[in-house]
User: Which sequence fits this backbone?
């Protein structure tokens, strides 16, 4: 049967081109791989190879013709023993089915529209049953306990990172884990973040549940390709067949006096990525409950800790299996005049500011987001609808910050409730300076939060 | 296809290989070639979009290594992945329909040419970032070692990828932890338009493993029997708990890097010479004919059968509908624990 030779698409964007030259004439035979023509696109001149073998029956588009549309028939290829007389009817039958392009251009609006969603409501379920005994723990101890409990519960959970085993952790988060679980499950790695993050992703594909410790998240920039391209996207790219159930954890943000390359807050970076979950605890109870949830989660979780918080002591519920769900903010302090939203170490400024403001007769509601993805919009919105004012607090850079995002959501969903523009207190738009006085200025401060609240409450 | 029985070492190429084995290599290689030719054609018709990296010329590499694999072994590769999928037994229809971005594709049309996966066949992608599959492959091996089974992972990557830093991070850890992974460098002599000579002064890629204590060797990738033999040696090394092994398989890609390759970095003659003198499929064809394992007519019939499979896959890939619009919002997060194991 004769075959139509069609004008080929030679690049992802080509729609038409110039048939520059025929290298085969009518009557000449071709075998697959022979170059039959040269075709010019706006980018290059390319050789067009035959796929099938046969004899050129007829050339329909002469050389030198410009503007030949992709998929136009440019020649007829005959099989051995066939002639052009046999053609007319048969050739057309091989014409390609055009790709369906009648699909609507945009995504279904309904899936994202907020129009008929009910009024936002804060989830006020308590994190633990009333009367649960409490014990005092540092964030560091809470994190270790969370890992140890989950490793006891699931054989496939293992910890991998620099200095996590014999050294007991650069910040002593993995203290005692090597002794309890052995070097099969607590694995010291060379200083090769890109490599071991990739190995952990592969191990997760292979059925394990890795916890990857980055000595700090500054070094996870070496590995961010695997975190985003390999871990976050695989479930989607495989049509749901396989994903990377794993945790990437470590200290994030500024410590103290460690300079520009060791002091960055990555909250907003990871919060942008669909396929990742992002947790950023402030208290020891949340550190424990969220890390346990993170390890059990079937998705890749970024778990952002903070070196300055590691040594802080909080009440932690003394119960068998304490977890905190993702996507549930915590109201630390109820108030009526303004909503202060923060997360992680930002909560120290938020809570201090609320205390100071109370002395001046301003009642602030303080919300800890706890997870940035999923993010508990409803608790924030319900609060803003009550107080009509909002200040956000974080240590990260100001451009495209979490505060920026919240401002946009509040504008979209609670515009009529606002009595003042939302103010974002953030780190300054500069690399972190080393000098003690400058470092203080570069981060956000309690005084800035107090000022912002006074601004939005017009005091 | 991953469970072919091994045949003894041949003193003379082809002398010691059974007729059935030879025929099955021929068949598998031919399926890849015809499939890729068809994919190129569908691309030309606008049915396949974006990038489409064809494996034509390199068929003996993956077919030879799959002949050395057993059930349970894993594989992971780059974006030049169609051949690997067919060779490990994935269905041509599902692969082609993924190329056309349709519901019937291995990733429901959401992955595309570069991103396909099959849990069933232990095929772990399909990765678009040059070199990224190398630590992932070592990680799969890490998981197998952790679980205490004797599976081996094949981590395929190109000569260009061999210059990525993460490869050497991985070599170091794979040897340190004795991971059962075969690093397969498919040296097709070009990374897009950059020849190996223009990207490194080190004369051999596999020998870089020596710096980490990893054994390896160079293999003629246009000779499927040589590839299989080297693969068996590498796999035995890994399965015995001796850690990783490197195979630098010398091969050649006949087509452009992707579909829009102006091909100015090499001469037409160079390509033609390879095709005429070293073609891996022609090599086995000659072994079949001279060894009187098959007649011209037998091979014609086989060719026809394969064309049938490929045409059927193309028809399926055209007719399978585009994914439902709701699919945009699915598979972003797993609800229950994925059963990766
Ligand atoms: C990290 C990264 N850099 C660049 C690219 C673009 N790119 C895609 S393939 C390729 C060449 C790779 O050549 P090689 O590793 O030899 O594999 P081959 O294509 O020959 O199979 C390049 C530069 C990429 N995908 N990823
Ligand atoms: Mg190459």
Assistant:
């Amino acid at each position: 049967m004769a075959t139509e030779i069609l004008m080929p698409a030679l690049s992802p964007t080509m729609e038409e081109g110039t048939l520059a030259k025929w290298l085969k004439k009518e009557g000449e035979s071709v075998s697959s791989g022979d170059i039959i023509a040269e075709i010019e696109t706006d980018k290059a001149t390319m050789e067009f190879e035959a796929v099938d073998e046969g004899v050129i029956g007829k050339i329909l588009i002469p050389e030198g013709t410009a503007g030949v549309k992709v998929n136009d028939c440019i020649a007829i290829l005959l099989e051995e023993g066939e002639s052009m007389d046999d053609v007319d009817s048969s050739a057309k039958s091989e014409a390609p089915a055009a790709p369906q392009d009648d699909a609507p251009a945009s995504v279904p609006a309904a899936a994202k529209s907020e129009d008929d969603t009910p009024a936002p409501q804060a989830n006020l379920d308590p994190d633990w049953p009333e009367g649960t005994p409490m014990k005092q723990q540092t964030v560091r101890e809470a994190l270790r306990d969370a890992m140890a409990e989950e490793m006891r519960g699931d054989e496939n959970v293992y910890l991998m990172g620099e200095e996590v085993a014999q050294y007991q952790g650069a910040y002593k988060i993995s203290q005692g884990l090597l002794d309890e679980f052995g070097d099969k499950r607590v694995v010291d790695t060379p200083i090769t973040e890109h490599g071991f993050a990739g190995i952990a992703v592969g191990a997760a594909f292979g059925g394990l549940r890795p916890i990857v410790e980055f000595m700090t998240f500054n070094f996870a920039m070496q590995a961010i390709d695997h975190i985003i391209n390999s871990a976050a996207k695989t479930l989607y790219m495989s049509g749901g067949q396989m994903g990377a159930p794993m945790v990437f954890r470590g200290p994030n943000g500024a410590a103290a006096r460690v300079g520009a390359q060791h002091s960055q807050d990555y909250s907003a970076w990871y919060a942008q990525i669909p396929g990742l979950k992002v947790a950023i605890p402030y208290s020891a109870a949340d550190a424990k409950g969220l890390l346990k949830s993170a390890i059990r989660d079937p998705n890749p979780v970024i778990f952002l800790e903070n070196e300055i918080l590691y040594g802080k002591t909080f009440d932690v519920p003394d119960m068998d299996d304490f977890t905190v769900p993702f996507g549930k903010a915590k109201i630390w302090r109820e108030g009526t005049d303004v909503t202060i939203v923060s997360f992680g170490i930002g909560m120290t400024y938020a809570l201090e500011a609320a205390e100071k403001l109370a002395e001046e007769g301003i009642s602030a509601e303080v919300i800890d987001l706890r997870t940035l993805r999923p993010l508990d919009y409803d608790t924030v919105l319900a609060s803003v609808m009550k107080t009509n004012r909002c200040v956000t607090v974080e240590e990260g850079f100001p451009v495209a910050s979490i505060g920026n995002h919240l401002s946009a959501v509040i504008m979209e969903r609670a515009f009529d409730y606002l009595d003042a523009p939302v103010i974002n207190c953030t780190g300054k738009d500069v690399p972190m300076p080393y000098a003690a006085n400058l470092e203080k200025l570069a981060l956000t401060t309690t005084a800035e939060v107090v000022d912002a609240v006074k601004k939005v409450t017009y005091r | 296809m991953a469970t072919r029985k091994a045949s003894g070492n041949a003193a003379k190429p082809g002398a010691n290989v059974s007729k059935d084995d030879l025929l099955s290599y021929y068949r598998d290689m031919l399926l890849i070639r015809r499939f890729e030719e068809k994919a190129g054609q569908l691309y030309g018709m606008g049915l396949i979009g974006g990038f489409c990296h064809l494996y034509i010329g390199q068929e003996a590499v993956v077919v030879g290594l799959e002949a050395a694999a057993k059930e349970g072994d894993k594989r992971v590769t780059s974006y030049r992945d169609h051949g690997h999928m067919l060779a490990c037994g994935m269905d041509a229809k599902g692969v082609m329909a993924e190329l056309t971005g349709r519901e019937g594709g291995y990733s429901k049309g959401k992955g595309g040419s570069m991103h396909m996966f099959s849990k069933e066949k232990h095929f772990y992608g399909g990765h678009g970032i040059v070199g990224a599959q190398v630590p992932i492959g070592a990680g799969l091996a890490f998981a197998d070692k952790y679980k205490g089974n004797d599976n081996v992972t094949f981590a395929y990557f190109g000569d260009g990828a061999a210059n990525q830093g993460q490869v050497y991070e991985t070599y170091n850890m794979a040897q340190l932890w004795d991971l059962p992974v075969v690093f397969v460098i498919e040296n097709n002599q070009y990374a897009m338009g950059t020849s190996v000579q223009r990207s490194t002064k080190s004369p051999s890629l596999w020998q870089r493993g020596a710096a980490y204590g990893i054994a390896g060797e160079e293999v003629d990738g246009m000779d499927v029997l040589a590839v299989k033999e080297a693969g068996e040696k590498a796999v035995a090394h890994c399965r015995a708990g001796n850690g990783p092994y490197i195979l630098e398989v010398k091969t050649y890609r006949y087509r452009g890097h992707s579909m829009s390759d102006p091909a100015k970095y090499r001469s037409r003659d160079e390509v033609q010479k390879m095709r005429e003198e070293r073609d891996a499929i022609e090599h086995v064809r000659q072994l079949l004919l001279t060894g009187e394992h098959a007649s011209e007519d037998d091979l014609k019939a086989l060719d026809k059968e394969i064309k049938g499979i490929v045409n059927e896959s193309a028809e399926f890939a055209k007719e399978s509908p585009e994914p439902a619009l709701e699919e945009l919002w699915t598979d972003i997060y797993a609800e229950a624990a994925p059963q990766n194991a």
